[in-house]
Specification:
CATH class of the largest domain: Alpha Beta
Radius of gyration: 23 Å
Number of strands: 18
CATH topology of the largest domain: TIM Barrel
Distance between the termini: 21 Å
Structural class: alpha/beta
Number of domains: 2
Bound molecules: pyridoxal-5'-phosphate
CATH architecture of the largest domain: Alpha-Beta Barrel
Strand content: 15-25%
Order of helices and strands: EEEHEHEHEHEHEHEEHEHEHEHEEEHEE
Helix content: 25-40%
Largest sheet: 8 strands, parallel, barrel
Strand order of the largest sheet: 5-6-7-8-9-11-12-13
């Protein structure tokens, strides 16, 4: 009998081989492809719920009140949003369209944080009318526009300042957001002036301080560095009479794609909450906005091989999913596991897995040993 080696799947026990066939929660990938055709994304509800539950457990173990807000940009599929809404999560959005998806999925507007450097006046109006809990402000000009839009709507917009703590999260430059050269946040040295300006505007009310330093972060240290700077700012604002009801730590916790060893939500959150309590801010609400760590390991993209093509230089597997379906490899050479739906006892060759789009950036994986036919 020939023994087959199954690929190692780093993510979640809900996505695993049963004998030689890949299954998602006991349903075979092949049967899903036959029913729904390819390319198809498949998500495990149980995997999403388990990831969310880890944050809920970490929050419930702490005396500090934690508000969980799923970052919609990680995956805005309505069914995914619905799972989180049913667990009582709020949402972190960056557009009016994302707000509409959240509401359609049964999310509560009162648990929605509106982030993003490019909010339009129309989207602000939509969010004000829906009654979102907070706008995370990214610039003085945005403050002016929001105050005007709120005035026109006859409302007061609750705002947090998203500060840029200038820390290196040690992640890919395209997903680092907390360096002073990034477009995100308000520089620490400009934040006090901006906070004072909010006090002069009748249609905004400052209620929080936020930061988000990047994504796929695999250690706690950069968060602690950022947190200390955020707490310094909260301290100096409160000396000047502001009342800061919540501190938003953003998201960014990494996941395992290959050999990464990110902290668990508990190991990530516990030291941050302990620092907040130790510095005397334990009676504030702490907001967290995880995205990737909720959904990143909860799904698979099913794709079929259309053609195998060998040139003098390379073996290519041309598949029916492309960079338009999965942008990460093209955008920042991200590596993900490629696993056959059915493992075969045939000699493996090293393939570049490429899509049908007319761009050389249209690849999903490179030099993967696979037995294809
Ligand atoms: C992207 C983003 C998040 C979520 O980051 P993940 O790495 O997906 O956890 C949270 N908050 C803000 C403001 C973001 O831009």
């Amino acid at each position: 009998m020939k023994i087959l080696t199954l690929p190692t799947l780093p993510g979640n026990p809900q996505i695993a081989y049963i004998q030689t066939c890949l299954h998602i929660e006991q349903v075979s990938a092949t049967s899903i492809a036959e029913t729904f055709d390819t390319p198809t994304y498949v998500y495990s509800r149980a995997a999403i719920e388990q990831a969310a539950q880890q944050y809920m457990d970490a929050a419930s173990r702490s005396p500090v009140r934690v508000a969980l807000r799923y970052a919609v940009k990680a995956n805005s599929t309505l069914a995914v949003l619905q799972v989180l809404a049913r667990l009582g999560w709020g949402f972190d959005i960056v557009s009016g369209g994302e707000l509409q998806r959240v509401l359609a999925a049964g999310g509560e507007a009162g648990k929605v944080v509106f982030s993003g450097v490019g909010k339009t006046a129309a989207d602000m109006r939509l969010a004000l009318d829906a009654g979102v809990e907070c706008f995370n402000l990214e610039s003085p000009n945005e403050l002016t526009v929001l105050n005007r839009v709120a005035q026109e709507a006859g409302k007061v917009a609750r705002v947090a300042l998203r500060v840029n703590p200038d820390v290196d999260a040690g992640t890919h430059p395209y997903i680092s957001t907390g360096l002073k050269t990034n477009k995100f946040g308000i520089a620490q040295e400009q934040a006090v002036a901006l906070a004072l300006q909010t006090a002069l505007l009748p249609h905004v009310q400052l209620i929080g301080i936020a930061s988000h330093i990047g994504s796929q972060i695999t250690s706690v240290e950069p968060y602690l560095d950022a947190l200390d700077k955020v707490l310094d700012l909260v301290e100096s604002l409160e000396h000047k009479g502001a009342q800061i009801a919540h501190i938003d730590l953003g998201g960014g916790l990494g996941i395992r794609y290959n050999h990464e060893t990110p902290p668990t939500p508990q190991d990530w959150l516990a030291p941050l909450l302990a620092r907040i309590a130790a510095r005397g801010f334990g009676h504030r609400t702490v907001m967290v906005e995880p995205g990737r760590s909720i959904v990143g390991n909860a799904g698979v993209l099913l794709t079929r091989t259309l053609y195998l093509k060998s040139t003098p230089a390379k073996h290519f597997a041309v598949v029916d999913a492309g960079m338009n379906d999965l942008i990460r490899p093209a955008l920042y050479e991200a590596e993900q596991v490629v696993a056959p739906a059915e493992v075969r006892a045939a000699p493996a060759l090293k393939y570049d897995i490429v899509g049908p789009v007319c761009e050389s950036a249209d690849w999903l994986a490179r030099d993967r040993a696979l037995a294809l036919e």
